[in-house]
Amino acid sequence: MQQFKNASSNIKLLLSYKNWSQEVLSKKTGISLATLKRKLSANNGWTLLEAVAIAETFDVSVEELFFTRMIPNSTETA
Q: N or C: which end of the chain has fewer CB within 10 A?
């Protein structure tokens, strides 16, 4: 679905930032690992409860996680 176009990349970015695996996110949210993997690869079909659980786990809003493109911080130093 077009409305969730940012969800997968944002979740993957936050997983990387936290240094978490999909398995860790699965345990923290209560979403099965198989469901999480399927939805991250298909980038659609998230339920409201799943969206809220993931957003709360990362301490971000549902809007920010699903509808805004997050940009990684640069780790380069001048």
A: C
